[in-house]
Amino acid sequence: MKIGLTSYSMNNYICDMGMPVTEVMKFAKEKGAEHIELVPFGFTLHDDLTGEFNEDLIAEIKAVSAAIDLPLSNYAVLGDLLKVDPIARAAEVERLKRHIDVAAKLGLKTMRHDISSFRRPLESNTPIAFEREFPMAVETCRELADYAAQYGITTLVENHGFFVNGSDRVIRLIEAVDRDNFGLLLDTGNFICVDEDTVVAVKKCAPYAKMVHLKDFYIRRADRLTGNGGLFRCDSGCWFSSNSGEYMLRGSILAQGDLDVWSTLRIIRDSGYDGYVSVEFEGMEDGKIGSESGMQAARYIIEHA
C-alpha cells in the first residue's frame, strides 16, 4: 500500500492561511507521503460559474508532482445527484463531467464524486428515502462512469455523509451500477457517522475498495456533551452528531481516537489491497502535526498489525 495525504487534511492552512496547494504537496513529500489526493477546497481547478478551467494551476500541480516525484492519486469533489428537479439533476451531472475533465487533464485514473448532499437533513436519511431515490443514484452514476471511461478514469463513490453511507448501501449501489470503472473509495472512519461498527463494515467493503481513506474519531454519548456540536461541521475539531443522534463525533489524529484503526488496517492489508491510502485528518490539532503523525501511524500499523 502507498501511504499519502489528502490535501483536505491541510484545509485550515489552505483556506485560512492561503497556503498554495503546491506547497501542501511539498510538505507532504517532505513528511514521507507517497502520493497526494486533491480535494479542491480553497483552490479551484474548474470554475463552476464561468465554466473555465484553471489551466495554469493544473499545469503547475502536474509540474510540481513530477519535479518532487509525488504522484497524484485521486481528485475528490462534492456533488448532489439526487436533486428532485430533473433539469437541476441533469445540470449537476454536466457539472461533474467537467470535473472528470479536470481529472483527465491531471492525468488521474480515479475521481470521487459525491452522490447526495452532505447537508441533507437527518430526517430524510431513512431507508424509505434511500429506496425511493436509489434509481436516480444508479442512473446518474452510470452516466458519469460511462463519460469517464473515455479517459480510462474510474469514478468512485465514498461512504460519505449520512445518506449514501453504510456498508449495505454502498455495496448495493456499486453492484447495481455494474460498471467496471465504478467502485468504492473506502473511508475507514465514516461508517461511524451512520452508527455502524467500522470493523464489520470495512470487512464487508474491502473487496470493493479502489482507494482508501484512513480516518479516526473521538466518540462520546450525546447526552454527555450538552450544548456541543451539531450536524454540519465535521472539520476544525468540531463535535457533530451521528445519524441516530445518540453519539457525538470529533476528528482525531489517526490511531489516537476511539476507532479500531489497527483492526481496520489489518483487514484492508490482508484483503490484498495494494493501492493508494490517504490519511484524512480533520481534528482540532495543527494540520501539519495531524497529517505527519497520521502518516507515521499508518506506516507503523501496516508493518506491525
Sequence of secondary-structure elements: EHHEHEHEHEHEHEEEEHEH
**Residue ranges: pLDDT <50 for 5 or more in a row?**
none
Tell me the CATH superfamily.
Divalent-metal-dependent TIM barrel enzymes
Average pLDDT number: 95
Q: What percent of the residues sit in helical stretches (DSSP H or I)?
A: 25-40%
Cα-based radius of gyration, to the nearest Å: 18 Å
What is the CATH architecture descriptor? Alpha-Beta Barrel
Q: Number of domains in the coordinates?
A: 1
Structural class, by secondary structure, is alpha/beta
3D structure, described in words:
The protein contains nine helices and eleven strands. The radius of gyration is 18 Å and the shape is globular. The longest helix has 23 residues, at about 125-150. Strands 1-2-3-4-5-6-7-11 form an eight-stranded parallel barrel, surrounded by five helices. It has a three-stranded antiparallel sheet with strand order 8-10-9, with no helix packed on it. The chain has one domain (about 1-305): Alpha-Beta Barrel (TIM Barrel), CATH 3.20.20. Strand 6, helix 7 (about 200-205) and strand 7 (about 210-215) form a beta-alpha-beta unit. Helix 4 packs across helix 5, helix 6 runs parallel beside helix 7 and helix 7 packs parallel to helix 8. By secondary structure, the chain is α/β, with parallel strands linked by helices.
